[in-house]
User: Fold these one by one.
Assistant:
Number 1:
Amino acid sequence: MNIKEKLKNLDCEIITDVSLKKYNTYNVDGTALAIAFPKNIAELKTVIEFAKDNKIRTKIIGNGSNLVFSTKYYDMILINLKYFNDLKINDDTITVASGFNLMKLAYKVSRLGLSGMEFATGIPATVGGAVFMNAGAYNSDISHILVSAKILMPNLKIVELSNEDLKFSYRFSILQQQTDLICLEAKFKLEHGNVNDILKLIENRKERRLASQPLEYPSAGSVFRNPTSEIFAGKLIEDLNLKGHKIGGAVISQKHANFVINYDNATGDDIKKLIMETKAKVYEKYGINLKIEQEFVE
Ligand SMILES: Cc1cc2nc3c(=O)[nH]c(=O)nc-3n(C[C@H](O)[C@H](O)[C@H](O)COP(=O)(O)OP(=O)(O)OC[C@H]3O[C@@H](n4cnc5c(N)ncnc54)[C@H](O)[C@@H]3O)c2cc1C
């Protein structure tokens, strides 16, 4: 039996030679050996053990809202935890599985009058991807509300790491250093607040995002981190007259220069080239080495 046949026989939902287009928010195409959708921890372990035995790389993907895939063939098994979607709300404490949609969660708890996740209503992540990235906005982020996270370790034991153990800093958690750790579940502590005030704040921010960001096109959010709280990456790029600049189907948004959009059938390679070229131009002009927030999947 070849590897694809063996994969199809595993006790887990698996698609082989999978097109990646619907698994990333840039909507770029690419192909991977397989994507697995385990329904529980036993199935997840089966996939990981199979990959290990057959020396195949694995990578967890959430909503793919921070990923740039290239056009190459990925000889790896992507693992998506969409079936890990349990949610328990106990007064102000939320226990949620890592495949749960972060925006959906933020709206749900906000409507219950729980405050602390307002920042997340515009971030199209899964809970696991948001913990990995310490995703945030408006001076808040996951580290402000996370109590602990259940992690599947490389030895397939599950441990509970505290907020401190996860070593959060700006858009960083320890999961980025040890990429074989898998976030299975997160526990958040919120505060009781006034539902109308919470929803009003969310609505205001939504209007601001809609007015300033090109959300009508596929993207992965901001490309570069702002170098300081006073220097904005978007402004540096705009001042170089790069709005509208394109490579293939990838374009620097006219609406917000820190967004690259898939304007017309872009490939991940177009997007990467445009990002790297912009970074080089900013460095050449200002001597500022912009940090890329998105991940080029190798
Ligand atoms: C329109 C738009 C707006 C955005 N706005 C913001 C914003 O305001 N603030 C912000 O911080 N980000 C923003 N982003 C970026 C993105 O949503 C975040 O980086 C998010 O945290 C990525 O989550 P994801 O589930 O999509 O992860 P993916 O992009 O699928 O994966 C990102 C990384 O996390 C790892 N990972 C995913 N799940 C797990 C898991 N369970 N265990 C271990 N590792 C895992 C993956 O292997 C990968 O390395 C935006 C993106 C878009 C498209």
Number 2:
Amino acid sequence: MRKCTTGRLDKVPPSGIRKFFDLIAGMEGVISMGVGEPDFSTPWNITEAAIRSLEQGFTMYTSNAGMPELRKELSAYLKRTYGLEYDPNTELLITNGVSEGLDLAVRAILDPGDEVIMPDPGYVAYPATVLLADGVPVQVPTYCENGFRLSGNDVRDAVTGRTKAILIGYPANPTGAVMEMDRLAEIAEVAQKRRLLVISDEIYSLLVYDMKPACFAALPGMKDHTILLGGFSKAFAMTGWRIGYAAARREIIAGMTKIHQYTALSSPTMGQVAALEALRSGEAEAQKMIEEYDRRRRVIVKGLNDIGLSCFEPKGAFYAFPSIKVTGMTSEEFAESLLLEEKVAVVHGNAFGPSGEGYVRCCYATSMQNIEEALERMARFVQRHRQV
Ligand SMILES: Cc1ncc(COP(=O)(O)O)c(C=O)c1O
């Protein structure tokens, strides 16, 4: 029978995470540190604003680029937070989460065969999205010893005549790594010299501990060469509302909007109303959640180190990424055995790229009680399997 799906799909491996979650389905008593999403509900004032808008019958499409009030508020937010000026009419686009923003960005800028440099390990959607746009992902290894940060030299060495863009995402999933402004400046220097675009996924930008949020586009000269992707899912506990945004120079936003208007038309109206409220009054509630993640971060990092799973200190997002080398297992063996023997779900590091081998991702967006119980179970597991 004639193959009914495009060959493009064959280039994208099935998500390693999906396979693992199929295993969990149906198991009872599992503590999940697997899924990367807030365990909080959306702050009530945000939800209430959306409910009010529904009651008032505000259920139509919005303009393709998103509600003008939301773009205006977003523009003011980016100005007061990072000093960046984006024209709400031509340089901002409201998307269905960073997920859609990323897809639009690569589809708007890549020609077939264009290469995109990205850190390894990295968010699972980065290589997949580039492949689906007929681009070539170039994964550059990063190491625990360097805080899982990408250096200017690493990027320089990976650039070829086909490189179109560098895709970074700090604070990072799965490592929790952050990049300070001077480190980001190294990447900016390469981008400027080699005339590359930078796609900066800043979905976790507000979730930073002991430091201030950083924005790549705020580096000198980088605003016009950066596609800034941001969103509401993580910091405001709004994963299901599906709202994100892209900020970039006019031609890029026009290109992204062209795709968005045909494939999505507009982002969810109720979600946009909620996002507007988040920008207007959500920061205090977001701050409370960040403080709670920070408390959990300290407990989990200490706990993992105490039981022999050496863990680098994540400075952002809500993931711990401990080394499992003491067990001599591969990360898949570790995650599967831990689940079957102790009913704790973590994600095997190689799901995020080859350099994630030897690590597992533990999401600490779960209750302190769950974290403490999971650490006890993991301690028993490591004691049984420790090889060195
Ligand atoms: C690094 C990173 N970028 C983007 C996303 C997707 O965000 P959104 O919900 O805005 O589509 C995630 C979700 O886990 C993520 O970890």
